[in-house]
Amino acid sequence: MKSFEVNFDGLVGPTHNYGGLSFGNVASQSNSQQASNPREAALQGLEKMKALMDMGFVQGVLAPQERPDVAALRSLGFAGTDAQVIERAAKEAMPLLVASCSASSMWVANAATVSPSADTADGRVHFTAANLNCKYHRSIEHPTTSRVLGAMFADQQHFAHHAALPAVAQFGDEGAANHTRFCRDYGEAGVEFFVFGRSAFDSRYPAPQKYPARQTLEASQAVARLHGLSEEGVVFAQQNPAVIDQGVFHNDVIAVGNGELLFHHQDAFLNTEQMLAELHGKLAARGGNFQSISVPRDQVAVEDAVRSYLFNSQLLSRADGSMLLIVPEECRANPRVWQYLQGLLAAGGPIREVKVFDLKQSMQNGGGPACLRLRVALNETELAAVNPGVIMTPALYDTLTAWVNKHYRDALRESDLADPQLLLECRTALDELTQILKLGAVYPFQIN
Ligand code: SUG
């Protein structure tokens, strides 16, 4: 049976703004308070989805969340009508209003961890929504994420959904941003690679000094257990704490994997040689031939990787078996990174083509091409069981583009977030979106 890696991209929500909310994420902190352009952000994301669809990849779309999250503000003690809740939060606790307005659910690599059916004990595709509990503005995403994923992958014969892990730092889970899967073919059993930043219960593992390590070993282990993965099919590895302290807040800022290939920075991991040997051995036992490309620090410094998001790229397998790398414009703007990429192509290895996309609106909050997509490997039967409303087609692209142009503002500043009109605009837009994507009622305003 044929199988595919389907990329579900997060559609940027109408409140996209630069809130400076993510300590440890250099872009988020340095662009704080700048005016954003939600319309441009959403259109940039749609362009990427369309381009991949046009190249023949199966492309999906993942809906944004209801923001401002009035229910979250109510749970923090702001009361009255919805408009009063927003007004009071703006007056008494602006940072909480900003957090409740974040469109951060666009970075769907953090929505969940997904294990394909070939890897799991019960032969279903498993999803665990990420608790994202390191940052308040992201910790409020998972209940809606679970409902949206449930509406996209509803067939219980093929899809199993797990609630987010306990919402404490010891089980900090950031989803697929710290998870990659290696395989010979998407439909065959593979090796799932879980990368953690620290251990919550074992002090022998080092931890970063300056910035938080968002993913714990214990969270990764729990997800692997929930998904019914076998010991032969998993490898756990620790991120180098020194790079977390340089702004690598997720492993997908410094490494990306696909098929039999891991593309990573020399300084990405601890105990790299041992880890690569384990990956090689486990994939070989599954009939695969693991390969890695290590980018030397003297060609691309960690700082250049963080600024350009070279590794936050999408590594895609083309029909002829070669690979394509989707990178953000910032890679072309960085002479060292661009030179490295030219050399990589000239070397004639597995990566044969680099395509550049303008994702500046998202990049300014630390979200590149890979952050914007959730990968779900599916066989033909499973793909047929996915809600067809969320699979990108030329008609859906046109409809979504018109929907964005109709509903989104082209400028948003912090002071705009207090406008109760923004809430109404968002709800009107999202109500229409659930009809376009055939999701049913998934948002708090539709349910309560
Ligand atoms: O969690 N930025 C996100 C970026 C997530 C990127 N995802 C991956 N690497 N997979 C984060 O730090 C910034 C929001 C703000 O500051 O307005 C933010 O949440």
Task: Tag the structure with descriptive keywords.
448 residues, alpha/beta, L-arginine/glycine Amidinotransferase, Chain A, three-stranded mixed β-sheet, 18 helices, 35% helix, 17% strand, binds N~2~-(3-carboxypropanoyl)-L-arginine
Q: What do these coordinates show?
A:
Helix 2 (38-54) runs antiparallel to helix 16 (394-407), helix 4 (82-92) crosses helix 5 (94-101) and helix 16 (394-407) packs antiparallel against helix 17. The protein is globular, with a radius of gyration of 21 Å. The protein has helices spanning 26-30, 38-54, 70-75, 82-92, 94-101, 136-139, 142-152, 217-226, 241-244, 272-285, 302-308, 329-333, 335-346, 360-363, 380-385, 394-407, 420-436, 444-447; strands spanning 3-10, 59-62, 112-115, 125-129, 159-162, 179-182, 191-196, 234-238, 255-258, 261-265, 291-295, 314-317, 323-328, 351-357, 373-379. With 448 residues, the chain is α/β, with parallel strands linked by helices. The chain has one domain (3-67, 102-447): L-arginine/glycine Amidinotransferase, Chain A (5-stranded Propeller), CATH 3.75.10.20. The strands form 5 sheets. The chain has a 3-stranded mixed β-sheet, with helices on both faces. A 3-stranded mixed β-sheet has the order 3-4-5, with helices on one face. It has a 3-stranded mixed β-sheet with strand order 6-7-8, sandwiched between helices. It contains 18 helices and 15 strands. A hairpin with a 2-residue loop joins strand 9 (255-258) and strand 10. The longest helix has 17 residues, at 38-54. N~2~-(3-carboxypropanoyl)-L-arginine binds at residues 18-22, 25, 28, 102, 104, 107, 109-110, 138, 177, 249-250, 252-253, 365-367, 371.
